[in-house]
Amino acid sequence: MHVKQHNNLLAFSEHNHHQCEKVLLDRAKTLCDQREVRLTLRRRQVLEILLSTHQPMGAYDVLNTLNKTEQNITPPIVYRALDFLLEQGLAHRIESENAFVPCMHPGHQCEAQFLICSNCHCVAELDSAISPVLDEAQKIGFEIRHAVIEISGLCATCRQ
Amino acid sequence: MHVKQHNNLLAFSEHNHHQCEKVLLDRAKTLCDQREVRLTLRRRQVLEILLSTHQPMGAYDVLNTLNKTEQNITPPIVYRALDFLLEQGLAHRIESENAFVPCMHPGHQCEAQFLICSNCHCVAELDSAISPVLDEAQKIGFEIRHAVIEISGLCATCRQ
DNA sequence: AAATGTTATGTAATAATATAACAATATGCA
DNA sequence: TGCATATTGTTATATTATTACATAACATTT
Which of A6, A106, A113, B44 is the most exposed place for a label (fewest CB within 10 A)? Predict the structure, then answer.
């Protein structure tokens, strides 16, 4: 399995998840080193929690999970770690769920789009981007800063 | 001005807003009659408040506005009216803002996409739909139920 | 190592958004 | 009218997120 080459649909496929987590955590470390930002204990813990599943987690899910091994984890601690991960492109916020997923290809520039299965609640991250909507925007002189593209429905497995 | 023909970019254009509101409120009445659902006082009041601007309004913005003329309007009252409007396609929820806008072409089937100006906070509703993301979804057997497409940036006016 | 500035975390309180549960009222219709 | 259903009113609370300020960790200079 070549996790680095295309992990777009990983969430909907059988895969070695332990390796999936490991590769992305290592990649996060490398990127933070390169950028001279610190992947501190708390930030790494939150990233690890996000990486543990392909289902989006709410901030309070993360908080409760973290509180199983740590003490007195409060909302600001979690939200600050999440903000860091979002800034560094190591995680994404799923607006339509008020929840967070780890980025499946950190370091890539283009913005992500998400396919969200309503049944298994897994989220696949695409990076193909570019749609007629964006063309339309350009045509009318709208300068795009950020695109939220979240498609929900049923993944191939759950349709069966 | 032909509100009915293309009000996609109305939000970013000078227009007779009084007429814009009136046309859409009348259209809502007609649609509700056709569908044999009731556009009650509360529902109409909430729709009117949404129609008063092209900026998305939070539920509590609506609540505070409504409480200026009414008494004891509470969150459930507002959320229920909003739910009704969403169900009937008379309003949309902007997920990335936890806020609501009136639908600019109610009765049309296809899902909307939004251009949100970060400066003037106006929202334009496109209905052109269909993007490579949707194609991609289909290709991998993902059955689309709902698409959240919210593009934020600067509208032509605010870029200047 | 001490002093300093900066970054990150801890802590308490609260704001903002949304829903649950049940009571009362209004509406449509037999 | 009386019944069933839909809608609204009311109270309480759940969920998500932020503010404000205190403390601690880290990095650099001395």
Answer: A6
Q: Which of A72, A31, A26, A32 is nearest to A48 (CA)?
A: A26
Question: So what's the pLDDT on residue A135?
Answer: 78
Quote the pLDDT of residue B108: 81
Among all strands, which nt has the closest C1' to A76 (CA)? D18
Could you tell me the CATH number of the domain that includes residue A79? Answer: 1.10.10.10
A9-38 residue pLDDT tens: 788 888 888 999 999 999 999 999 999 999
- Residues of chain A in contact with residue B133, where contact means CB-CB under 8 angstroms, are 113, 126, 128-129, 131, 149, 151
A3 domain residue, yes or no:
no
Count of domains in chain B? 1
> Which residues lie closer than 8 Å to A121 by C-beta, 6 or more apart?
A55, A56
Name the closest nucleotide to B58, judged by C1' and CA: C17
The contacts of residue A22 (CB under 8 Å, 6+ apart) are none
